[in-house]
Amino acid sequence: MMFFIADEQAIRSGRVTDIYFERTRQILEAKGIDKRVKMEVAHKYRFPRGYEWGILVGSHEAAHLLEGRPFNLWALPEGTKLLAHEPALLLEANYREFAVYETALLGLLCQASGIATKAARCTVAAAGRPVYSFGIRRLHPAIAPLIDRAAYIGGCTGVSGVLGAELIGEEPVGTIPHALILILEDSTTATLMFDEVIPKEVNRVALVDTFGDEKFEALENASLLGAGLYAVRLDTPSSRRGDMLEIAREVRWELDTHGFSHVKIFISGGLDEDVIPKLNEVADAYGVGTAIGNAPVLDFALDIVEIEGEPAAKRGKRSGAKQLYICKECGHRQVRLWDDPIARCPKCGGEMEPKLVQFLKEGELVRELPSPQEIRQYVLSQLPDRL
Q1: Residue among 295, 217, 356 at smallest CA distance from 47
Q2: What is the structure's pLDDT at 241?
């Protein structure tokens, strides 16, 4: 293997599994035992520190993983906001046939949901300012499209990856790297050549911290391109940074003072949800890399909740298949047994909507999968005003 990755065939065939699931399958097969079970995916114990909610991503890949096999699958729609202990997915299958897919199923859900949740939290922190994902260089390139898709769905306005952007039907977003400025030995030379070579529909954003003071490089680039300069990017390394807010304030002041009030300020480098709000006073947009690409996973677990139609669960888990209901009027949430529906909200009397919907019926995909753009809008509609 040139790259240490599993391809689609290996994942779909169940080879990406923990060995104890394979041994379980062998034992059940050897003893002629097979039971119909219902299994539930829910967040295991608690969200990462400081989180009160998560964004579910991975239900589409889960459906593709299990498609074509005699399984029934219900899940929250891709991009649904969920709280701890709420069911995210319900699967009905003969356990012997399903066992080897548990590892892959959880992997599809946990990492993508973590990335989307972090992107959503950064989006909320930015208070309406665009957040762009620059996170693919921090993880294995094989999952770059996953990172970009999850970040975009979570609320990022755009992504930097060429392949990831292509797969979600968007144009990749990027400015000028320090490498180009170092090779050309000057910030303004790099900006000018960018302007000469790159198509005009791409915004001109000058990187202004490679050799000199951010304020002076910003003014030099603004004087060079005038109305053609869309923004300057501040990516000052931490060893030279000092007070980034004060640096950005100074750059904004000088740009405005010299007649370049149209030039926006784009800040990147070491940003996260706790840093962004402090910069909102001056920043017009953000590029977030490591915090999104290396986001903490959402710690989902899969547990049997019914065996042959009877409620059953291990110690510490609640037995019985469950449905999540959310009031259309006030947003009240309630988890109930699948066969114990609730029509009206106990708080406001509004209509309670069941959120887990069927994706697979005996292995056949029965739900139309929305586009990344539609999912992103769904996510944005559920986000709070502040963290």
Answers
A1: 295
A2: 61
